[in-house]
Amino acid sequence: MDKKVFGYPLKKIGIIGGGQLGKMLSQKAKQMGFYVISLDPSAECPAASVSDEIIVSDFYNPEKLKELVKKSDVTTYEIEHINTAALKELYNKGYNILPSPYCLEIIQDKLRQKQVLKEAGLPVPKFEKVESFDISFFESFGFPLVQKATKGGYDGRGVVVIKDSRSMDKILKTESYVEKFVDVEKELAVIVARNQKGDVVSYPVVEMVFDEAANILDMLIVPARVEKDIEDEAKKIAIKAVETLQSVGVFGVELFLTKDRKILINEIAPRPHNSGHYTIEACITSQFEQHLRAICGLPLGSTKLLSPAVMINLLGEEGYRGTPLIEGLEEALSIEGVSFHFYGKKLTAPFRKMGHVTVVDNDQERAIEKARKVKEILKIKSEVKIG
Amino acid sequence: MDKKVFGYPLKKIGIIGGGQLGKMLSQKAKQMGFYVISLDPSAECPAASVSDEIIVSDFYNPEKLKELVKKSDVTTYEIEHINTAALKELYNKGYNILPSPYCLEIIQDKLRQKQVLKEAGLPVPKFEKVESFDISFFESFGFPLVQKATKGGYDGRGVVVIKDSRSMDKILKTESYVEKFVDVEKELAVIVARNQKGDVVSYPVVEMVFDEAANILDMLIVPARVEKDIEDEAKKIAIKAVETLQSVGVFGVELFLTKDRKILINEIAPRPHNSGHYTIEACITSQFEQHLRAICGLPLGSTKLLSPAVMINLLGEEGYRGTPLIEGLEEALSIEGVSFHFYGKKLTAPFRKMGHVTVVDNDQERAIEKARKVKEILKIKSEVKIG
């Protein structure tokens, strides 16, 4: 290993997006002695008060992106919906942007992402580009199916399930593809990191439990309650998927475990991921530190799990919009093993991610029980009830 | 438990001192949704870029301290050498300052601290106020002895060891006390937290290993390598000491384990403590979160150790002064279980605390081995060599 010497700050890190992921990334960077410049449309975004500098700009302004990239030794991002063309131009001039904008471009286009993975021999649900909005196209693909917009989807937006030909009124009249509806046993996720030398590490497999009624993530359980061979296979597939993308950073790989015990890739995020928040408390190296190590050419850290953990998102309660009020915090914090994260968003809104809680406990069942209790007592509301 | 509702920010925390302790406290506060105002003489102090606001002032300016206290829901401090008189005045007017300035006043005066502990029946080395600088006073107390300035000592300053009457030229001509030189088997430390309800928790006992030659802390090992009864006794004494002070917050209690198996209190710090840095990685609740919970009237968190750990301070190398250069970082980070903290001080100087490293490893001996290796390879220097 070459005896490279780091000055202070270690490096200047540019982060596109100052939401909770940017905030957590910035906090870890500051712990380690980096200098952080965040770019976000709001000067009051969660990352603002924990970064060294903030550039106020939307994610498409080429001049502001250029300013960020030029000021930074390495630029990264916490969201996918950004100006890839502008970043490619800077990347081609030799600026350090990781994961590369070319990788981001593949991921932004969900259809291309699927094609790339399929071509690499990775298991994905059967899919096809929507060439016509005529019922015959959908019928010949076969019901039930999921239609997904190729671009711009996020947190369930841009996705519809079409059960049969009678639901054809739900179809999205947009550039999209259809995917076979997968009979899912469990949804899993694996955080994978890859550095510039091509070293790859994976974190433990996480089980994503959904609230079927509300169609939102209920809790994340780690380690996933699956057999050893499923766990190994999930990691193997996630690692191969990230290797296929040939880029650098931390990636969140979402997987389906089907009822017939197959693992299929759902989608990949080229950044720290909600399913990896538990790593802050429960792993030796958090996903945020790992991302920094990867993009800064440092050795990757240990992904070892120190304790079983359960993570729940704290979403804005339905019916409330405005300055957040937190109910039940004292009671929640009296439960052993509870870590509370509040992102610092100025306004709550129904289902908005306002914070999260990680519960660590040696006993996985007890951790789940505690997380369920926290979910019951800890509520993000606001003064005024709406609607 | 009353259903108290928290707004955002949860509370405004004022922190006197923006060094590494203030920085780590601020980072945890920001994670949890607090608003942080730091007060420090330097606008470029470690805490500055991770706090919401910085008030630039020395620690004795009553107007600036008042500004901080008035702006904050609760004010705390990361150092002891501050204007207690000004804080007492504000405290008496009903402002929330924790630990209370009265507690701080006792601790600032090391002689009074010892007296208070002794009166509470706690074990301390034999001590006596220096009433005369005449040799006969010291002789009648008995050699070997340690003379300590009652106020202003820090990191070994204001402390001299007088072995016999021939070393009398070393004595400090200042307000001071003498203490019997203790034949130390090991130095131990325990972090204790107490909240407003009077709940008290203690962390695991830490073993402080000193480099005898340089007379500086070499490494901190947790759990301490002592028998169970010593461990229990150390915790019991530390808890009783903190209860004696009747205040609120996190306290670092430094202890001597004597060669004849007695535990004596050395001194107490009314704040998060160097010996508790390992809690960030190795405990469920870090000492910084615990301090926030305590001073904000929240339930105390679990002090459970998730893994054995060893912490080393990263001190500026002798012979270097100036902008820091970090040597060996890549090699150090390639060791499994290493967490790197760099405080962001603009200048290094010999023995200045520039950062720290925590190593976690299931196997304590291996953790010690790894820490020793990190110490060898990771060096804080600067461009220009001095002296």
Any chance you could write out the topology, listing elements then pairs?
The structure is a homodimer of 387-residue chains.
Chain A: E1 5-7, E2 12-16, H1 20-32, E3 35-40, E4 53-56, H2 62-71, E5 74-77, H3 84-92, H4 101-108, H5 110-119, E6 127-129, H6 135-141, E7 145-149, E8 159-162, E9 176-180, E10 184-194, E11 200-202, E12 206-211, E13 216-222, H7 228-245, E14 249-258, E15 263-269, H8 279-282, H9 287-295, E16 309-315, E17 324-327, H10 329-333, E18 338-342, E19 353-360, H11 364-377, E20 379-382
Parallel strand pairs in A: 2-3, 2-5, 3-4
Antiparallel strand pairs in A: 6-9, 7-8, 7-9, 10-11, 10-12, 10-14, 12-13, 13-16, 14-15, 16-19, 17-20, 18-19
Protein name (chains A, B): N5-carboxyaminoimidazole ribonucleotide synthase
Binding site for ATP (chains A, B): 110, 148, 179-182, 187, 266-267
Catalytic activity (chains A, B): 5-amino-1-(5-phospho-beta-D-ribosyl)imidazole + hydrogencarbonate + ATP = 5-carboxyamino-1-(5-phospho-D-ribosyl)imidazole + ADP + phosphate + 2 H(+)
